[in-house]
Amino acid sequence: MKKVFTVLFIAMSFLMAANEVSAQTKIGYVSSQDLLGIMPETRKADSSLTQLRTALIQNAQEKETRLNADIEKFNKDSATMSEAIKTVKRQDLQKAYQDLAGEEQRIQEQLQQRQQELLQPIQKKANDAVQATAKENGYTYVFEKEVLIVAPSGEDILPLVAKRLGIKVPNQPAGTTPPPVTPRPNTKQ
To answer: Which residues pair with 55 in a beta bridge?
Structure first.
């Protein structure tokens, strides 16, 4: 009888401890994309990337214009050139053409690198704000909204994080989220 009472006491202790732990767990969620989308720093980064993209494309177009002019001049003047000069000019034009052919990839790489440089501190600021908000409001776990299948709207901490950052959350109809503002460099026009 004493063993049964001891086993029941231990089992009840475990059940009470488990119940207390679950009562202390507070779960929230946030959409990082939505948070980044409402941050003014993201819009500034997007503007900066757009300006860089425009400048890089303009530079590539100027190189292409110069190459086309050089090819046209070569075709026009080649009849009066010696074979040695023609060979050197052809090699120069071929090198310029190859350089121009790799320009799109270089532009893409520069834009991606700059995007990463600009967004990294913004993402860190957003993450720090989410963590501080969660701690301040007693959230044990905060999940990314996009991975949840079902989530009550009352557990969305985006308004709390936005308030911490001093950002006004734009009004939106119930059940919708604002479109994310994510700079996506594209070198094709």
So the answer is: none
Q: How far apart are CA 105 and CA 185, in angstroms?
A: 12
Residue at 3 is within a domain = no
The residues, any chain, with a CB within 8 Å of residue 5's CB and separated by 6 or more, are none
**CA pair distance 187, 167, nearest whole angstrom:** 32
Whether 63 contacts 100, CB under 8 Å: yes
Classify residue 29 by its DSSP letter: E
Q: How far apart are CA 4 and CA 53, in angstroms?
A: 76
From the number of C-beta atoms within 10 Å of its C-beta (0-12, 13-18, 19+), residue 117 rates as: exposed
In a domain, 92, yes or no: yes
β-pairing verdict for 141-144 and 27-30: parallel
pLDDT at 23: 55
**With contact defined as beta carbons under 8 Å apart, do 25 and 19 qualify?**
no
Q: What CATH number does residue 134 fall under?
A: 3.30.910
pLDDT tens by residue, 148-180: 888 887 789 999 999 999 998 887 544 444 444
Q: How many domains, in total, are found in the chain?
A: 1
Task: Name the token pair of 46.
Answer: 């997007």
